[in-house]
Amino acid sequence: MQRHLALLRYLFPLPKRRPPEEESAGLLLDRARRQMFELHARHRERAVMAITQKNNLLNQVDDLKKTVQNLQEKADIAIAKDELTLADKLLREKQSFAESLRSSEETLEQAEETVEQVKRAIEREEEQVREKVAQILTLKAKWKQGEIQLAMEDELRQIGVWHLAQPPEPTIDRKTARELVGFLLLAIVGLFIFALR
After folding, report:
1. Residue 29 pLDDT more than 90?
2. Considering the domain boundaries, does residue 188 fall inside one?
3. Which of 28, 130, 138, 141 has the most Cβ atoms closer than 10 angstroms to its Cβ?
4. How many domains does the chain have?
């Protein structure tokens, strides 16, 4: 069996490892990490914009509430002074502001839900960024280890002791080669005869 494996290794040698390009691995990993952080920064900017819009809506709702309350107070004073025309005008104005207030409150609720969703998405993304950075650092360490190993192998070749660090190449003597060729021919003839029947 060892002879057969040796012949197969001799006939079909494994491809030699090519050394990785010097800094391409590190550059690719750094570029991927930089792009990931840039994407995360853009998402955070969008989240800040959503929070700012929500805060603006909150201020608008507060202002509308104050305006509605102020108009109601003025209408009550006008009624107390028996100025019904002014009171009617103030109540209609209050009504329009109250409708705007209801619309703004609905929009504010939607904005708050959106902000919460964005915050959860940012938290998930931050976790993914941490995981990806850990994976990138692991890959970088593996590539660096491979570079070190290749450098050590080159040094051993230059010193001339490379053969001591390598496992011996399988060799086939003539007798084993003849036996394997005979075995292969016998197998081919057997298959040919079997196919003719």
Report:
1. no
2. no
3. 28
4. 1
Task: Centre a 10 Å sphere on the Cβ of residue 45 and count the other Cβ atoms it contains.
Answer: 10
Lookup: tokens for 158: 């230059």
Max CA pair span of the chain: 127
- Looking at residue 145, the DSSP 8-state letter turns out to be H
CA 19 – CA 194 distance, rounded (Å)? 48
Classify residue 5: in a domain, yes or no: no
**Number of neighbouring beta carbons within 10 Å of residue 97:** 19
Q: Which CA distances in Å does 116 have to 103, 110, 121?
A: 20, 10, 9
Give the position of tokens 């990785």.
Answer: 20
Say which residue the tokens 């994407």 belong to.
Answer: 39
pTM of the prediction?
0.52
Range of the domain at 159: 20-169
- What is the token pair recorded at 11? 């006939």
Helices marked H in 12-83 = 24-80
Check pLDDT > 90 for residue 66: yes
Residue 183 lies in a domain: no
Residue 2 to residue 178: CA distance in whole angstroms = 15
pLDDT at 14 over 60: no
The answer to whether the CB of 101 falls within 8 A of the CB of 68 is yes
Q: 123-128 long-range CB contacts below 8 Å, 24 or more apart? A: 125/40, 125/43, 126/40
For residue 17, the SS3 value is coil
Q: Is residue 149 part of a domain?
A: yes
